[in-house]
C-alpha cells in the first residue's frame, strides 16, 4: 500500500492545518499515513484520534546535525512513497529530504511570501522578511516534483510554472449545506469569520459598521475569531463607544449555525491567497461584502459586493436588504457556485490523481 508522509510546522487548527486534517481523514483508509510535526499543538490530538502515528520533532530553520539525522532516520524507517509538505518551513525541509533520499515530493503553498511583511513595522525588516520567504518558496518549488497552489491568483507567483497545479481549498464535508431561503427580519444579521486583526481588516469593518449605523441600518454582528488581547479589547471599546451590538465568540470550530442564521457576510481582508471563509459564506448562500482583492474576483461570483469604497458598500447593503428578489438571486448564485467550485469530493479526487501521476512518473 502507498505510504504518505505529511510534514507540518505548526499544528494549530486554522486553514492549512484543517486542510491537512481533512486530507488524512479522507486518505487513511487508502494509504498508510504518518505525520511529522515540528512543534506540538491542538492538531496533534485530532490526528492521533484517527489512529495515525505522529512524531513531534522540534525543528528550526537551522537545526542541529543531530536533529537532521533524526528526521532522516524517521523517514528511512517509514519508507514513504510521497512526502507532502504544508507550511513554509515544512515545505523547505520536505524538499531537502526528498532530494537527499530520492522520495517523491509534493509541496502545498498556502500563503504568499509577500504577505509575510504585513504587520512588520520597519521597512528594512519588511524587505528582509519578504526576500527570505521568496527564497524559501523558490527552494521548496525547486526540490518538489509538483507544487500545489490554492488559487490561480497565487499560482501566478510560481517560480516553476510546469510544476505548478491549482487545487482549490474545499468546503469541509460537515459544512456542505442544502440551500434554504432566508426569512425577512427587521434586523440585519451580519457575520465576520477570521482572526481579529488588521490583516483581516477589522479596522475597516468597524468603519463600515459605524457608517451603517449613521445611515440608520438596524443590525447586529457576530464576530468569530481570536486575536491579540490588546487589539480585541480596542475593537470592543470602539464598538461600545458607538453603541454597536457585536458579539465576540472567539475561535469557533463548528461555524455552521452562525452561517445559517446570518443574512450577510463581511470580511475586509487586506490580502488572501484563497480565503476559505469567503467560500464557506458562499456555500451557505450569504451575499458577501469585501475588498476588491484579485483572488476574490477569481473565487466568488460577480454578483457579490467587492469594493474599497465603504459608501458604495453601505448603500449597496441598504438596497440589497430592501429587495428580496435581488437578495435571493445572489444567494442562490453563491450557493450553486460554491457547490460546484469547492466540492470536497471533486477536489480530493484531483489530489488523488496527482498522487497517482507522481508515483507513476519514471517508475
How would you sum up this structure, described in words?
By secondary structure, the chain is of the alpha/beta class. It has 14 helices and 13 strands. It has helices spanning 15-27, 42-48, 65-78, 88-101, 123-143, 152-155, 202-214, 229-241, 256-261, 276-283, 294-299, 310-321, 324-341, 344-360; strands at residues 3-8, 32-37, 54-56, 82-86, 104-109, 146-149, 164-166, 188-193, 219-224, 246-250, 264-266, 288-290, 305-306. The strands form two sheets. The chain has a seven-stranded parallel beta sheet, with helices on both faces. Strands 10-9-8-11-12-13 form a six-stranded parallel beta sheet, with helices on both faces. α2 (42-48) links the parallel β2 and β3 (54-56). α7 (202-214) packs across α12. The radius of gyration is 22 Å and the shape is globular. The model has no long low-confidence stretch (mean pLDDT 92).
Number of H/I helices: 14
Distance N to C terminus: 16 Å
Using only CA atoms, what is the Rg? 22 Å
Number of strands: 13
Strand content: 15-25%
| Unreliable parts | none
Largest sheet: 7 strands, parallel
- What is the molecular shape? globular
Percent range of helical residues:
40-55%
Q: Numbering strands along the chain, what is their spatial order in the largest sheet? A: 3-2-1-4-5-6-7
Look at the helices and sheets and give the structural class: alpha/beta
Helix/strand order: EHEHEHEHEHEHEEHEHEHEHEHEHHH
Rounded mean pLDDT is 92
Amino acid at each position: 500500500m502507498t505510504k504518505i508522509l505529511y510534514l507540518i510546522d505548526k499544528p494549530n487548527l486554522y486553514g492549512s492545518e484543517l486542510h491537512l486534517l481533512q486530507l488524512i481523514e479522507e486518505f487513511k483508509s487508502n494509504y498508510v499515513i504518518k505525520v511529522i510535526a515540528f512543534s506540538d499543538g491542538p492538531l496533534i490530538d485530532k490526528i492521533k484520534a484517527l489512529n495515525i502515528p505522529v512524531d513531534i520533532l522540534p525543528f528550526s530553520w537551522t537545526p542541529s546535525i543531530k536533529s537532521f539525522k533524526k528526521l532522516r532516520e524517521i523517514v528511512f524507517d517509514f519508507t514513504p512513497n510521497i512526502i507532502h509538505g504544508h507550511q513554509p518551513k515544512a515545505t523547505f525541509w520536505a524538499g531537502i529530504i526528498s532530494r537527499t533520499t530520492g522520495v517523491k515530493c509534493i509541496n502545498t503553498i498556502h500563503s504568499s511570501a509577500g504577505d509575510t511583511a504585513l504587520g512588520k513595522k520597519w521597512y528594512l525588516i519588511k524587505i528582509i522578511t519578504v526576500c527570505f520567504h521568496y527564497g524559501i518558496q523558490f527552494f521548496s518549488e525547486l526540490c518538489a516534483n509538483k507544487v500545489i497552489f490554492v488559487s490561480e491568483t497565487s499560482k501566478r507567483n510560481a517560480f516553476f510554472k510546469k510544476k505548478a497545479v491549482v487545487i482549490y481549498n474545499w468546503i469541509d464535508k460537515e459544512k456542505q449545506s442544502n440551500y434554504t431561503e432566508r426569512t425577512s427580519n427587521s434586523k440585519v444579521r451580519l457575520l465576520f469569520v477570521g482572526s481579529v486583526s488588521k490583516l483581516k481588516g477589522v479596522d475597516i469593518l468597524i468603519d463600515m459598521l459605524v457608517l451603517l449605523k449613521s445611515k440608520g441600518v438596524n443590525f447586529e454582528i457576530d464576530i468569530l475569531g481570536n486575536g491579540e488581547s490588546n487589539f480585541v479589547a480596542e475593537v470592543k471599546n470602539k464598538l461600545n463607544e458607538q453603541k454597536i451590538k457585536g458579539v465576540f465568540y472567539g475561535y469557533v470550530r463548528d461555524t455552521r449555525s452562525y452561517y445559517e442564521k446570518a443574512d450577510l457576510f463581511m470580511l475586509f481582508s487586506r490580502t488572501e491567497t484563497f480565503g476559505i471563509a469567503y467560500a464557506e459564506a458562499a456555500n451557505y448562500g450569504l451575499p458577501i461584502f469585501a475588498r476588491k482583492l484579485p483572488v476574490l474576483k477569481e473565487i466568488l461570483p460577480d454578483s457579490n459586493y467587492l469594493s474599497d469604497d465603504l459608501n458604495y458598500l453601505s448603500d449597496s447593503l441598504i438596497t440589497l436588504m430592501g429587495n428580496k428578489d435581488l437578495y435571493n438571486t445572489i444567494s442562490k448564485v453563491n450557493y450553486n457556485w460554491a457547490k460546484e467550485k469547492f466540492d470536497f469530493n471533486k477536489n480530493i479526487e484531483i489530489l488523488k490523481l496527482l498522487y497517482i501521476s507522481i508515483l507513476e512518473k519514471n517508475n
